[in-house]
Structure prediction request, 129 residues.
Amino acid sequence: MSTHATKDLETFINPQPDRDFTIHFEIPEFTCLCPKTGQPDFATITIDYVPAELCVELKSLKLYMWSFRDRGAFHEAITNEILNDLVSAIYPSFMRIHAEFNVRGGIYTTIVVEHRQPEWRAPERVELP
Prediction:
């Protein structure tokens, strides 16, 4: 596998497709460029998803995230693009992308986007004593 940035997302078969479970990724070193100034933007990207038939492979996800380093784009566009690309690659039962960008011009920006398959229902949360 390459060690260069790429938009290719590799996948593997979900080992437990009959069970809902959550996969959680935290990407604390995400960078892209401000489309207005060309200055770097830094963010922590959190991905939570319930896989259906496929899961995303971690090294390919890392290389995918690197592909944004030299691109200028608005925070809203980047966050939605990540969701769209991941959904296209694995079509999960549910996915949420939470992008928390560092301060720019005295303003913190947080973007949250979600995808849900129409037939999927979240299991009831169990609270234990």
Summary: Residues 84 and 115 are 9 Å apart (CA to CA). The beta strands are 11-13, 23-33, 40-50, 54-56, 94-104, 107-116. The chain has a mean pLDDT of 94.
